[in-house]
């Protein structure tokens, strides 16, 4: 089906030619004549290219991390976008519910009705719907099969794309995003809790003094009320969420710098500094991406309820409990108590609970189609990734015919922030059968 599409007049931003696109798509792709929503995407090309030449470049669709993540807002071409702009017109998609697409958050979802109506609405916000949005956008743009680049959850979406719309793909690149094709969410968290524990150990080995500071902050928060800029009291378990720093290479050192600024002397004794609380707030609030929490476990749901899998598995890892003698930092896991403590999530608590209890999620992947895949695919797998487990990733890679894996211990989940240009060029060369400095490992 064709969908309404509008495009802005191109404008330039620091060496980029930028065009804003809006597509009107069905909310429910199973009911194409029903309610519609808007999906936004932004096109970037190198402004040094004459417009007519840039328009002849093939498209590259970037599928960003998430769920609930909007497309990157580029201020200039750099890293992987600099590399990609030599070959492609880059299309940054605001996945449905995010950015300039029709929003879904605590302010807009009540327009749907009660929690049951909101949960029903959000069942249309998973990878299967995102992929169909992408296909409608591709057709509206007049593109043949296009290339995709999926980071993290964008890789999950790529596997869905390869499963149900492979005809729309020329080639696919994936970084830190090979989702398990089968099985309950529990096994994801059993693997990633172990990875996060190991990452904690590595961090405290590098910064041994930070072990005592971390415990000191935790014990302080148990007895002294400290409040985030948004007004709510900071709990120990919410403080542990700053472990998101551990998902990156250089970002890990940012945690050390944060802890150095934790305490200040005041007339009321030692308190957490405003600078510390402000930074923590930015790390633990989901105001900017509430769907990350609301939809998070649903990305693993296929025919069964996820039922707050991370909280259930946590019982096997007592070292992460806030009351542990030396509590560890947590990773990307989402727990039901988030919806008690984060003001951006409190109004969505019942809705999130209904999604966690949903036991009839449709399949996100087609293992048979993937086993017969003919689309060139290359994936970067990071050995110590705390968000997307290496072993589960290789299991998935083995189930996708022709998928080539490049495994690296040099990067963590945000590898493309460290060497985006090098990683992109390597994966592109792999799918095109060109020489790279190291031999890729066939995995399909």
List keywords for this structure.
444 residues; alpha/beta; 2 domains; eleven-stranded mixed β-sheet; two-stranded antiparallel ribbon; 36% helix; 16% strand; globular; disordered C terminus
What do these coordinates show?
- This protein has 444 residues and is α/β, with parallel strands linked by helices.
- It has two domains: 5-182 and 364-442, Rossmann fold, CATH 3.40.50; 185-357, no CATH class.
- It has helices at residues 51-54, 80-84, 115-122, 127-140, 153-164, 185-206, 209-223, 236-239, 251-260, 274-284, 290-295, 309-314, 338-341, 349-357, 367-371, 390-398, 415-431, and strands spanning 5-7, 11-13, 16-26, 36-46, 59-63, 89-94, 146-151, 169-175, 263-266, 269-272, 377-382, 404-408, 441-442.
- The strands form two sheets. Strands 1, 2, 3, 4, 5, 6, 7, 8, 11, 12 and 13 form an eleven-stranded mixed β-sheet that branches.
- A hairpin with a 2-residue loop joins strand 9 and strand 10.
- Helix 3 packs across helix 14 (349-357) and helix 4 (127-140) crosses helix 5 (153-164).
- The longest helix is centred in the middle third of the chain and has 22 residues, at 185-206.
Computed CA radius of gyration, to the nearest angstrom: 22 Å
General form: globular
Q: Low-confidence runs (pLDDT<50, min 5 residues)?
A: 439-444
List the domain count as a whole number: 2
- The CATH topology of the largest domain comes to Rossmann fold
- Which structural class best describes the helix and strand composition? alpha/beta
Number of helices: 17
């Amino acid at each position: 089906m064709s969908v309404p599409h509008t495009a802005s007049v191109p404008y330039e931003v620091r060496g980029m030619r930028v065009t804003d696109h809006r597509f009107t798509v069905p909310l429910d792709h199973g009911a194409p004549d029903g309610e519609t929503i808007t999906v936004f995407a932004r096109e970037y090309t190198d402004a040094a290219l004459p417009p007519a030449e840039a328009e002849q470049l093939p498209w590259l669709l970037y599928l960003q991390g998430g769920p609930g993540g909007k497309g990157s807002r580029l201020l200039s071409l750099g890293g992987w976008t600099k590399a990609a702009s030599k070959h492609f017109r880059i299309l940054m998609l605001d996945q449905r519910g995010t950015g300039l697409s029709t929003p879904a958050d605590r302010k807009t979802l009540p327009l749907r009705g009660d929690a049951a109506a909101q949960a029903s609405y959000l069942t249309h916000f998973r990878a299967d719907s995102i992929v169909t949005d992408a296909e409608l956008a591709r057709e509206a743009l007049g593109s043949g099969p296009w290339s995709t680049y999926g980071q993290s959850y964008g890789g999950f979406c790529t596997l869905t794309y390869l499963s149900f719309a492979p005809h729309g793909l020329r080639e696919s690149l994936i970084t830190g995003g090979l989702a398990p094709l089968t099985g309950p969410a529990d096994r994801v968290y059993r693997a990633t809790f172990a990875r996060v524990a190991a990452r904690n150990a590595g961090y405290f080995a590098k910064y041994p003094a930070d072990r005592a500071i971390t415990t000191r902050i935790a014990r302080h928060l148990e007895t002294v009320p400290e409040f985030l800029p948004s007004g709510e009291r900071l709990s120990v378990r919410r403080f542990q969420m700053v472990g998101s720093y551990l998902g990156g290479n250089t970002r890990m050192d940012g945690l050390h710098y944060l802890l150095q600024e934790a305490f200040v002397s005041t007339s009321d004794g030692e308190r957490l500094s405003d600078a510390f609380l402000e930074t923590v707030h930015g790390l633990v609030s989901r105001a900017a991406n509430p769907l990350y929490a609301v939809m998070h476990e649903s990305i693993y749901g296929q025919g069964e309820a996820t039922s707050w899998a991370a909280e259930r598995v946590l019982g096997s890892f007592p070292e992460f409990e806030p009351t542990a003698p030396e509590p560890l930092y947590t990773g990307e896991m989402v727990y039901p108590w988030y919806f008690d403590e984060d003001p951006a999530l409190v109004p969505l608590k019942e809705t999130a609970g209904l999604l966690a209890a949903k036991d009839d999620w449709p399949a996100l992947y087609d293992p048979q189609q993937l086993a017969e895949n003919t689309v060139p695919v290359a994936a970067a797998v990071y050995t110590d990734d705390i968000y997307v487990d290496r072993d589960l990733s290789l299991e998935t890679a083995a189930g996708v015919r022709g998928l080539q894996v490049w495994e690296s211990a040099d990067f963590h989940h945000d590898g493309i922030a460290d060497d985006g240009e090098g990683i992109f060029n390597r994966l592109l060369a792999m799918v095109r059968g060109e020489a790279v400095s190291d031999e890729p490992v066939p995995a399909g």
